[in-house]
Specification:
Order of helices and strands: HHHHHHH
Strand content: under 5%
Helix content: 55-70%
Structural class: mainly alpha
Number of helices: 7
Length: 178
């Protein structure tokens, strides 16, 4: 075989045929359609995951916790009005449940509180702009806002109105004794 023939045969093995490119282009719309369908029809949120995450963030003690004040319902209502927020919740809760199953062989809502806390901490420690970190930071911010908008959360706090925009009721007085 001459060098030219050898070079030609080597290059023909490394080149993508026109026929293969046309086949791939013909399949592309199917791939795009499936991806688009998955984004518009996400799997349902695993039951109990979101309330369990919220209870880790806002546990009940001498004041009511997140589930006591139905923060999940308020959060889902808020999310339904914001583009892509329901998908974030769905994907974020899936991440929590999958992480729980891989790490502890149980769904997230069935874990002991210490194990749930470890997974929440892991979400906060993920790199910025990753799904778990974006999810947990957004959920925490919105859950806290919804929680403190509810006057039932003020129990034992010696306040009878929201702190903003007027400030603490006694902000002009000197601090009292503890």
């Amino acid at each position: 075989m001459s060098n030219k023939q050898q070079d030609h045969s080597t290059h023909s093995h490394n080149r993508i045929s026109r026929r293969l490119v046309l086949k791939l282009l013909a399949l592309a719309p199917l791939c795009w359609e499936q991806t688009y369908a998955q984004l518009n029809n996400p799997e349902p949120v695993p039951p109990g995951v979101l309330p369990s995450v919220l209870d880790v963030l806002i546990p009940g003690d001498s004041t009511p916790g997140a589930t006591d004040l139905k923060i999940e319902e308020s959060l889902l209502d808020t999310a339904s009005q914001i583009p892509r927020y329901p998908e974030l919740i769905q994907q974020g809760t899936q991440w929590f449940n999958t992480t729980s199953l891989r790490s502890f062989y149980k769904p997230f809502p069935e874990l002991a509180p210490n194990a749930q806390i470890r997974i929440v901490e892991a979400a906060f420690n993920q790199p910025e702009m990753t799904l778990p970190r974006v999810f947990i930071e957004r959920i925490r911010e919105d859950a806290m806002t919804l929680y403190y908008h509810n006057s039932a959360s003020w129990t034992g706090m010696d306040i009878n109105r929201p702190i903003q925009p007027l400030g603490y009721p006694d902000h002009e007085e000197p601090p009292g004794k503890l």
